[in-house]
Amino acid sequence: MSKDLNKTAKSIVEKATGNDPDISTLKSAAAMLGRLGGLKGGVARARRPRPKKD
Q: What's the confidence (pLDDT) of residue 16?
């Protein structure tokens, strides 16, 4: 029960202070960061030397 009470209290405080983040905005920001990491990682993997197969 305390988790639900804490979630409710958090929601009330966020709405009262104007810090109610939009979920779609958070998801799109996370997607951008994930893509950025993937782009950097792909380049790093391509530069890494691979053992030669016989």
A: 81
CA distance 13 to 37: 33
Q: How many CA atoms lie within 13 A of 39 on its CB side?
A: 6
The phi, psi pair for 32, rounded to 5°, reads -65, -45
The string of pLDDT tens digits covering residues 16-34 is 877 766 667 777 888 888 8
Q: Which residues of 27-47 are buried (b: 16+ CB within 10 A; e: fewer)?
A: eeeeeeeeeeeeeeeeeeeee
40, two tokens: 């950097």
Q: Residues with Cβ < 8 Å from 40, sequence gap 6 or more?
A: none
